[in-house]
Structure formats: structure tokens, C-alpha cells
Amino acid sequence: MDGGDEIREAIRQEEHQPGSGGVLTLTPVRERRGPWLQFRVPHGFEWNRYELPIESLPPHLDGFRIVQLTDLHFKAFWSRTYDKLADRVNQANADVVLITGDFVDSKTHGPSQQAPYAIRFVEKLRARLGIYGILGNHDGDLVGPYLPKSGIKMLNGGPLEITPGMEFIAIAEVAREDFDWGMIDQIEPKQPGVVRIVATHYPDTLRKLGQIRPDIVLAGHTHGGQICLPGGIPLIWHDSLPKHICHGVHRIGPTWLVVSRGLGFTSLPVRAWCPTEVIEIVLRRAN
User: Fold this and answer.
1) What angle do CA 51, 55, 58 make, to 5 degrees?
2) Per residue in 91-147, pLDDT tens?
């Protein structure tokens, strides 16, 4: 069974009988709990740390740390919460900070009115090997040219060696229909001793990635439901994967799928039973 078949079979099992064994869910080490009810901006946030065992991880990458931010949804104002968030990210001394889309909220006024606030935030971030990002559906194609002013390295598709033994692959799809099968077909088979990490905005892009056998897929978009029932049960999650996979870290076939609830608000300016979130990933060698 190849990577694509393993992923499809695991998802099929979850769709027909959740918890049937197709998906393994990890529990994070939680630094703090986010407020269960939030309005307009994140008032505090959860910091969730996961250690992911990776087959054939090079020894020098054991302990490599990635901080994932997503769905910032900046509007045309600033909050002190953003200063506190940037300070906490920098305290982590991560190897890489990766932002998986939706820097701004407005699809029409984002470049002119909201991008300056996103730039102000990203300028504050620090990581040993740099800050990287991809666009989301709210960013459209017009926000991207503004963001490099902040020092971020925007990933626009195809593999990029971040450090020896690690490659990032960006899925450049502002809209789902932008998915580039040609780019996927051109990616070489994963080499032994290389960890392959895919950055995408949409979790269900995982269905299309089996042939490149990613070790980790990092995604956002769902907001974890944003407005949930008590216990974090999402009401709407804007994704075709089973709803219990719309946040958290899950083992699906050969791949770890990481879906962050993100930090922003869209449509209704409220979060209920769905705290804003930062995810820290620590790579570990599999026993």
C-alpha cells in the first residue's frame, strides 16, 4: 500500500466509523489554557506542544522545533495581545516559525488597510532559520507582495531545503481550485534520511499528497470551528475531512496532520469553546 492508499484508507475509516483505528490523535503538552469565550481579538491563547516521532529522522534534527501560527486575520487595528503573542513566540527560540495563511481578514481591503498590521506583527518575530509563510484564501493574490517587507520568506510552491536533511513543500493554493497537480508530479521521491514537511492552508489537501509521502502536513483554515459546543465540538469547520480532525495533531496513514485552531476571527467576531492557539512541534527520532 503506497502513501496515497494509506491516507485514503485512514480517512475512509474515519468517515464511516470515527475512532475505528484509521486515525491516531495525540494529546499536547499544554502550557496554558485559552479563554473559552473571546471577542474581536485573542485575549490570551493556548500554547500546545507536540513531540512527533519521525522515521529515519537525521540525528542532528532530533529536537528541531517549529512554531506554527495561522489564521491571524488582521483587521485595521492593533491590540497589545499581538505584542504579547510575538514576545511568547520569540521566547520559544524556535528553529523555524511558519505561518500557514490568512494574514488578513478582508478579501477586498486586506492589502491597503490590514496588511500594514500583519507586517508590524511579523516584523517582531524571530527564529534561528527564519520566518516562513504561505497565503490563505482571505489573503487572495494581492497581499503576498506586501509581506516580504516584514522579513518573512513566502513559500510559493515546490520543495525548499530549509536545512540539510529537511525540505519544506508549499502548496500554493489561495483557493482550492488553484492546486497544482503539475508541481506535485514533478516532486522527486522522498530520499532516505530526509524529513519532508508540507505547508498548506487547507487540511483536506492531504487527500492529494499521498504520492509525495509527507512526514508532516501543517494546515489551518478551519479555526477549529471558531464557535463550538462545550468540549470543543465544532459546528462549522469549512473542510471535507471528518469534523473531529479539524483541529489537533493526527496520525493519518504515514503522515502527521497538524491542524491549528489559529488566532483570528472572521465572519462573527467571537470564539466560543474554541480558544485561539499556537502550536509548537518538536521533531523526535522514532524508536
Assistant:
1) 85
2) 999 999 999 999 999 988 888 899 999 999 999 999 999 999 999 999 988 899 999
